[in-house]
TrEMBL record:
Record field: transmembrane: 71-104, 125-146
Domain (DUF4190) ranges: 71-140
Biased composition (Polar residues): 38-58
Protein name: DUF4190 domain-containing protein
Chain segments carrying region Disordered: 1-63
InterPro entries on file: DUF4190
Residue ranges with Basic and acidic residues bias: 1-18
Organism whose genome encodes this protein: Saccharopolyspora gregorii
Keywords in alphabetical order: Membrane, Transmembrane, Transmembrane helix
Amino acid sequence: MAHSYDSHDVERQTDPRQVRQTGTPEAEAQHPGASQVDPRQTDTGQQPERGTSWTTGAPTEMPRAKTSPMAVFGLVLGLLALLCGLTGVLAPLAIVFGIVGIVLGILGRKDGMQRERTGKGVATAGLIMAIIGLVLGVLAGIAFVLGAMNPDLFIPAQQQVGDLMTQVPR
């Protein structure tokens, strides 16, 4: 007994999501018997509303949560504070960006914990970078003030850097 099948049989077996039109002469000609049973019908015989699951009736699409803008700005200012603190020259900017980044990071964490909001992790990363940038900015500021008050304090460090520069092959 040989069984022949066409491509429509394979599509029905491999793709259960395929929606067939029923009740039209064209659909009946393409899929004989398809109008008798609609797989989208529930136990009550009614079709579920659009956007709900066939089996449970639960919504299939969840509204996308939005990232807290304060968390994003906290991350950006934390990154700027960290970069300015690492340069040392931009220590005053690192202090300002660090303070504002810490405030926005804290507010972003609170906002990120609300329903339909995300960004708690983004705010935490911004908060950590803002704190590190602030500490580096304060340390660079202290080093700048100490260097301005007592220039002899950094002479040994300047000599070591000069010695290293002469040892580098050119």
